[in-house]
Amino acid sequence: MTTADTPTQRRRWWALGVLTLSQLMVVLDVTIVNIALPSAQSELEFPDEGRHWLVTGYALAFGSLLLIGGRLSDYFGRRRMLAIGLAGFALASALGGFADAFGTLLAARVLQGVFGALLAPAALSLVSTTFEDRGSRLRAFAVFGAVSSAGGAIGLLLGGVLTEYLTWRWCMFVNLPIALIALAGMGLIAKQTAPQRATLDIPGSLTSVAGMVALVFGLAMAERNGWGSPVTFGPLALGILLLAAFVLIERQAPAPLLPLRVITDRNRGAANIVALLVNGALFAVFLFSTYFLSEALGYSPMRTGMSFVPVVLGIIVTSALAGSGFASRFGPKSIITAGCVVAGLGLALLTGAGTDSEFFRDLLPGLIVYGLGLGLVFGRLQEAATAYAESRDVGVASAMINTSQEVGGAAGTALVSSLAAAAAASVVAAASHGATLGAAVTVESYRTALWAAVVLQSLAALVSILLFRRGAVEKDPNRESIAH
């Protein structure tokens, strides 16, 4: 690097700070409401069913609109869509913070998902186009990946602190300063030439949104009604049919919403499958760990949130390793496979926990190891998901990995929840009613969820071994730089 290049290089890293802050706001909102829900329910007086929809409403909007958000960022400009997403997310958060009724709060969560679907692919694609030399690209994606994977744990931690010491409303208001800081830093993101605009794929857009909404809705219903219920398999079947129609449309469309070349590349395809599996485990682990810590061990919201700090620290350590000079000699196959195995070992260490568990003795080792594994996975996953994408496809490739993470989280939570519910039912059937029955059910559900997550991590490791190419990911010399 020459002296003349130094200001430009520094500006890129400041721009990365803006992009990672934007990503943090989106991912922490997946979990920040979890701990706040009981307080919000008590104040707004809505039924238990409402808690479910405050989580699902965000996932429905976010997961179903990500592909369109990615293509809109390619079409209208990534900086512009990032700014719109940030401003809209902030306004939706303010609406939720001032909500005086359940309907208003639910509308705010849905709007957060809508604007998050504009924001997330724009942020990731801007990282991909801003850092093109291999060394800085690795480091940038390691930082961005660390935020993406740690954001759920940070959301639980922040939700516990805000709920216990302020009010649940600050779990919504906290997004305002984050969005304002990111908007103030938009000038740090370089303007570059935009590609020629293609016609928007309306049939593909309609079938993808309808298919994703039906699929995520069906998965959400499985958690509460079981897989055999008509309200579960009906939407799931409809979603699969609509997504199959979407693929047929994309094969014929002159300007497809999701060019099939984006997902047929081995590395990008592998990255999306691994994201489905790892996030399915991650969302379920965070959900059932929250139940276990608060209900079986009696932790306060603050202490429950603080319990996830070891996961965050583990992610930070190995994300830095994934972006280091040592790791740059290895491709995603080696790093991501190792991360999946380590994360699975961490979860296995936690399966012996019970009502008499001590945090430092029984939980801390497993949480640290799990975080170390996640840092390796997410430190390289998003890089692999966007590498070699053509300039016109960077936004949709970024949207696709976000979609895989969100759908994987919803699917994993539904699958693991159904397994945990069956395990809990067996405990209830075999035990006599007593004061400790509730705790026993929670512990059995937690252990079942952990073993299911171990299986998902193992499958992710297998996919990584079989599909990722050997060797390092190099920058495609034919790819133009666009960060408009």
Total domain count: 2
How does the major sheet shape up?
A: none
CATH topology of the largest domain: Growth Hormone, Chain: A
Give the class from helix and strand content and strand pairing.
mainly alpha
**What overall form do the CA principal axes indicate?**
globular
CATH-level-2 architecture of the largest domain: Up-down Bundle
Point out poorly predicted stretches. 475-484
Task: Write structural notes for this entry.
This protein folds into 2 domains: 6-200 and 257-467, Growth Hormone, Chain: A; 201-256. Helices cover 79% and strands 0% of the residues. The chain has helices at 6-44, 48-76, 78-97, 102-130, 134-165, 170-173, 175-184, 202-225, 230-252, 261-264, 266-296, 301-306, 309-322, 332-350, 359-386, 394-430, 437-467.
Sequence-ordered SSE layout with sheet pairings:
Elements: H1 6-44, H2 48-76, H3 78-97, H4 102-130, H5 134-165, H6 170-173, H7 175-184, H8 202-225, H9 230-252, H10 261-264, H11 266-296, H12 301-306, H13 309-322, H14 332-350, H15 359-386, H16 394-430, H17 437-467
Quickly list its features.
484 residues, 2 domains, disordered C terminus
Summarize the structure.
The chain has about 475 residues and is mostly helical.
